[in-house]
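Kinesin light chain
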Amino acid sequence: MLGEFKKAQELENVVLEKRKQFLGDNHPDTLAAMGNLAYTYSTLGEFKKAQELEIVVLEKRKQFLGDNHPQTLITMGNLAYTYSNLGEFKKAQELQIVVLEKQKQFLGDNHPHTLTTKNNLAETYRELGQFKKAQELNIVVLEKRKQFLGDNHPDTLTSMGNLALAYNGLGEFKNAQELEIVVLEKQKQFLGDNHPDTLIAMANLACTYWDLREFTKAEELELLAS
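Predicted structure tokens:
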């Protein structure tokens, strides 16, 4: 899989250079190629290279499309994601707050893009140790995803797991445990015992059992997850 992304990166570099040559630096197709290459760099874990490209794309899209255009907001969200992966959580937070306000204004509170940004901002708050803010956003996203996607949708389960992590950060281990048990059961049911997401859910619940001093349960889960 990694080899395929490496090949994609090489091709995308060629495409970008050709588009710069024949269309110019500011053409929408050139910027799209730049965004695609940035995404591939992110997938390969080359976040610094992704960041450099995304900053250029964002500035160009602001200039030619305006601050409120959907493509501008998508690029801003992508750059925020890259900042998060570089550990620059304050920068990520600043961008995500802007994107969220714009999406609420133009798409509404319940749009999937708005909920994704809320979810991402909650993760950033958690990384910054702002667990109460993370919890509040996670609760909103979870309720909306249950409402619009159903209890068993992967995005709903992701939201449930994220809320559990926020509860853990607040020391509310029983609340975290209740959610993590549900997530684990659903992941086993729909993905199977050995799926990476199931194993992550297992490891998260094991950590919570340790925090609750339920050592036997924690050890049993860790053995299953290993």
